[in-house]
Amino acid sequence: MQERRPDAGLAAAASDRLDQRYYQAIPPRSLRERLLVAARDRIYDDFIQTCRPSRSDTILDVGISDIVNDAANLVERKYPYPDRITAAGLSAAREFRDAFPQVTYTRIEANRPLPFADNTFDIATSNAVLEHVGSRAHQVLFVRELARVARKVFISVPNRYFPVEHHTAIPLLHFFNGTFRMACRCLGKDEWTEAANLILMTKASLSSLTPNTTTARLGYTGLRLGPFSSNLFLLLECRSNA
Question: What is the value of pTM for the model shown?
Answer without folding.
Answer: 0.89
